[in-house]
Amino acid sequence: MRSTFRIFAAMKRIVFFCVLLLMACSHRPEGLETEVLNGYTPVKSQGSSQSCWIYAMLAAIETEHIGRGDSVNLSVAYVERMMEQEPEAPASGRGTCMTALRLIAKYGLVPYQTMPSADYPLPRHAYMLGCEYTMGEFSRSVCAPGEYLGVTSTPAAPYGEMVELPLADNWDHSQWLNVEPDTLLAVTERAVRQGHGVAWEGDITERGFCWEEGYAVTSWWNGTTSDNHCMAIVGIAHDEQGERYFIMKNSWGTGNACSGLLYMSFRYFQAKTIAVVLPAEDKKVVEKVGR
Question: Is residue 25 classed exposed, middle or buried when 0-12, 13-18 and 19+ CB atoms within 10 A define those classes?
């Protein structure tokens, strides 16, 4: 009898947690209203590649320039090919948003129309609006060295200092400014509201991440966060309950309910973010907010 009771109790616990998980994943934001939507280029698809970090960083740069009235559409394929020149680069093709910036500074950049896919030959020059540039000249015109700052939040290192995150994808030993969690959210929101391009790096394995429906909300969190995807942040919205969301531009094509965008709640952002990359001009703001 006791054995039967224990089995019954265990089954009830399993059913209870399954119901919680289903409820969490089915909880979708209702009555979403856009507060800010910055300009962005058409949503692209990374296909089977693992280059989301390049797509996200270039999308952030594109949004930044659209906000300045200087529209650019940049070639992911060129950066992918340049990564092949790096002896330490992993065969997986993975990296971080800061890796993308380092490759751009080293090898330059070209517009999307110059090299829209990997099967195009490597260009010798970059062409835009009838003008010819070297790859270095073009990259410095859209993303000068030091123009962007990586920001993270980890209690494993002192706040206010530059840290090298121990990520498998951080094979080039990039560093981020370490700030407190509330500061990370505050400076990201501020940057987006001011029209800046922001790249996001974090975890999408949470059960509350529902790509097909176009939202990411916190649900049953196991307390860990892994680095497995990157997207760009292009706006801010709120639902009928007043909860706020970042509007994310993904690189999985337009085949979801939001035509390639996704609404990530601020709470999901706080729980599952590894780092963001935003304009370096915000560094003083980061330091001020962090005090």
Answer: middle
* Contact (CB, 8 A) for 235 and 283: no
The pLDDT-based confidence of 6 (bands split at 50, 70, 90) is very low
156: nearest Cα among 144, 148, 147, 165: 165
Compute the distance between CA of residue 118 and CA of residue 97 in angstroms, rounded to an integer. Answer: 20
Which residue intervals of 68-134 are DSSP H helices?
A: 76-83, 97-107
Nearest to 58 by CA among 76, 84, 33, 81: 76
- Rg of the Cα atoms in the chain: 20
In which residue are the tokens 């410095």 written? 140
Q: How far apart are CA 282 and CA 291, in angstroms?
A: 14
pTM of the predicted model over 0.85: yes
User: How far is the C-alpha of 247 from the C-alpha of 126, rounded, in Å?
Assistant: 31
For 102-105, the CB contacts below 8 A with 24+ separation are 102/172, 102/174, 103/79, 104/79, 104/139, 104/143, 105/139, 105/143, 105/145
132 burial via Cβ count (<10 Å: 0-12, 13-18, 19+): exposed
pLDDT (tens digit per residue) in 162-207: 999 999 999 999 999 999 999 999 999 999 999 999 999 999 998 8
| H or E element in which residue 34 lies | strand 33-37
- How confident is the model at residue 228, as a pLDDT? 94
Q: Which residue has the higher pLDDT, 287 or 30?
A: 30
The residue assigned the tokens 């780092």 is 275
DSSP classification of residue 243? -
